[in-house]
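Hi! If you just cloned this repository, the fastest way to understand the data is to look at a raw example. We've pasted two of them here, unedited. The first protein comes first, obviously.
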Amino acid sequence: MTHQTMALNALFPAATESIEVRLAAGTADIRAAQRVRYRVFYEEMGAQPTPEMHAFELDFDDYDEVCDHLLVLVEGEVVGTYRLIRRHAADAVGCFYSAGEFDISPILAMPGEILELGRSCVDARWRHRGTLQMLWQGLAAYMVENDIRLLFGCGSLPGTRPEILAPQLAYLRDNHLAPPELRGSALGGPNRVDFEAITAPWEARRVLASLPPLLKGYLRLGGMVGDGAVIDHPFNTTDVLVVVNAADIAGRYVKRFSA
């Protein structure tokens, strides 16, 4: 078990005897997280695995060996995970994951520690408020331990047809656009969706009811989006760049860890 894992466990002990949240402590933990990701993203949500992923029934890439993996376990079984990429892990691969879809130079220019969030998922059997809260509480502990100042990552809307998602995208543009100093932008190319070109009307209550729970949760914590969206065909999603001030998340939970 690494020092980082022990620190997180000390900050956030298990809520019950059967449920715990901690960082992955070795290869077996990482593989368990990758199996959960495969079930959720590929078997449930229809993402397109590579032949190697399909053969092993694992979701994996180069970031998995250098990042931290936050886990929720029920009676020893990994049922939820969050992938946490800090600057040093991104440097080991060459860039942050979201840089493949967005120009994130304004975020990279921010001083202090920044954290890219990704691959958040919970097994369908345990997809309820309690498990999700465990992930968020574990994330808050990690942020406190590592003095994280800013969170960001790709927020996904289901589907790859922007004409259908136009009300959601217009709502995000009109209500949650990040200020210029934090406003990454979708890279050019055939998969870019220009916010300026969206003219669809939106109704707030209807849009909010249709947003994925994770994206809606970020918005409730003051989350903002960058300029434009990107169609991710392999994952069957349309992505926006989400930015959240770490204080907006940690403030809700920090008293647990700093008392």
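Ok, and the second one:
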Amino acid sequence: MMAYRRREGSLTIEAAMLLPAFLAAAIMLLSIFYMTLAGMRLQEAVVNEAAVLSAGQKIHDGVTLSSVKDDIAGMMPKESLRFIENGADGLDMSGSVIDDGEYVDLIVSCELIPATDLFGIIKVQVKRRCLAHMMCGYENGYFPDGEYVYIADDSEVYHSDRNCSHIRLTVMSVSGHEIGALRNNSGSRYRPCELCRSSIGDDELYITPEGDRYHNRISCSGLKRTVRVVRKSEAGDRRPCSRCGR
């Protein structure tokens, strides 16, 4: 009888020890499901917002990345936002482009977290993206009555390809101590930008494979291209781009 009671007591202790572990595992599995669902709903919201912006609705009426982020968060159920660290404030729109004129490129990054994480070490970094072409209103392009090309301000050439690397820049971040050993695609050294007064002493510098300057601010105008689409007949005395012109 005593042995039976000891066995019964032992089972009770084991059950008391295993039950919290079982519940924790169940909660974690449910969290993984809802984290995955939150990622799917974020993608859906990004696609829907890109569709709205590509249709030109309010695209020139003070739309900012901050307002776009608010729209995306507003499209998501509140229970999904709970699984994003810091909720709507945890959505990072860095790298998104809404003022290109031809494309809307929405890039949203965040960290997904489980419902219960006592140590704060379980986080999943996710990125969702949608690239949408602006609706121009013409079945055959911008100007159905003639060929169109792309030009950048203060440029002496025109481009037939909007994705030509001469106008669609790829910006890279490098450290100041390595800039002296780097070369651009033409084999030339990088020199300091006269606009942002960059110097090798800066901790972080920005370059492009096609350019020959390094910059200390990613917002420097030397790293930007304002591109317009015009009829080829309106390109004036600009010559074709050596890379994409025809």
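That's it. A detail worth noticing about the second one: The first strand starts at residue 103 and ends at 112.
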